[in-house]
Amino acid sequence: MGGGGIPMNVAPVQGGYLTGRKLVFPLALVISLFFLWGFSYGLLDVLNKHFQTVLNITKLESTGLQVMYFGGGYLCFSPIAAEVLKRKGYKITILMGLAFYSIGAVMFWPVAHYSTPYNTKSAFGGFLVCTLVIACGLATLETAANSYAVVIGDPALASARLQFCQSWNGVASFVGPLIASKAFFSGANQNNLTNVQYVYLAVSCAGAAVAVLFFVAKLPEVAEETGRRSSIVDENTLEMAVGHDGKIIGDAPLYKQYNMIFGVIAQFCYVGAQVTIASFFINYATENASYTAAEASQMLSYGLITFTVGRFIATGLATIFESNFLLVIYCCFAIAFNAYIAAGHGKAAVGVLIAIFFFEAPMYPTIFTLGTANLGRHTRRGAGILVMGVSGGAVFPPIQGAVADAAGTRISYVVPLCGFVVVLAYVSYHWVTHGFKVMRQKGAVIAASYEGGAVGGVVQTVHYDEKRLSVVGLEEIRRNSVGEVTGATGGIRRE
């Protein structure tokens, strides 16, 4: 593992990746992280509206939560988390993230307890600090968990595996608004912060419990590929990993990994669009239709249920169709629905707003998988950079908040529409450059080189003598029978 050793209580993965029953327990632990992330995110969207009411702040001011959450945490802290991941491994990084998460959540208690009608601005500032600490923890967990879910198993199924893990994120994200609709918007609680204390105390306890579980568990560690050219098979043979374009995987410097760079831009725009759609959902439902705040919070939970169902369905589809093709279709529907939301009125428009959550569902994990494919020795830092794309959630909401204050919430939904257009451009280019494939390729060589895995390429065997090398070409490997899938590279080993 480049940059540091594997902790003594962490079991390294033998043979490159896990399969079968060995994969179940590590994935279950990773799913628990996505559940914590989803629950926290679901509460955040509801707090936007609740703080507007209790603390008497504007829509634009309320987006400070998103700025701290996605900007302060994900943009600023993700590179730090990626460096810790590079040097210390997955387990230490996850424990660090859970510590930040639990501490930030428990900080909500004193801030809410000492909040009064006379110090609302100061109280909101305190909540922003709490949100920042939580976000630093979640950015750390995102960096580690997304990457771990991709590299721990078969690279050819990396997209489907990450879709499945992130589906549980969706399960938790609709539980949050359901609880909030009762805790924050019912009876006397709709005008105070008392229940905010108890909800976040429970969140902190949950984070601490998961941390204990990770501490005692023997979490398998996947070694990062540092360049297969130094992997000597025998005195006359060495191996190197190459992609479908014939170039050595991970050989170019990080700043020349253009697929990753474009993936970050697409992720930035997608997350910005997703966050704005959810953040202003309650405002849209109360202003554009005859829903109360409590009813709108429940409607938001229905949207997040739709999102969750969409994730599970996308998981199944990703085992049949190419992920880049699927995302092209999903983006087209999202753009069409978003256009109607910005132009429509009444309950029908709210129904379409709920439906768009279905088409958002597979975007984040698919973009992450496509963006981190074929990074080789840059995999862990690349994962941190892709997570930085989540900072789009800090940029888009203030823009939409300003538009909403000036022209109305309905018109402000043009902002996420722009984000979906950028995502469509990225995945369309990815689909076109990879041969317009619709069905998932059965050949492991082709499938593994298109997406997923720490490297996701082909291991070429190089036979050499004293002064001359002769490379077994990629086309020859393809013409011959498919070899055994090998290592975290997600490639094919032929000798």
TrEMBL record:
InterPro entries: MFS (IPR011701), MFS_trans_sf (IPR036259), MFS_TsgA-like (IPR050375). The keyword Membrane applies. Its main location: membrane. SUPFAM superfamilies: MFS general substrate transporter (SSF103473). It comes from Meristemomyces frigidus. It is found in: Cell inner membrane. It comes from the Eukaryota. Keywords: Cell membrane, Membrane, Transmembrane, Transmembrane helix. It holds the Pfam family MFS_1. This is Uncharacterized protein. GO terms for cellular component: plasma membrane. The chain crosses the membrane at residues 23-44, 64-85, 92-112, 124-145, 197-219, 261-282, 302-320, 325-343, 349-370, 382-399, 411-432. GO terms for molecular function: transmembrane transporter activity. It is a multi-pass membrane protein.
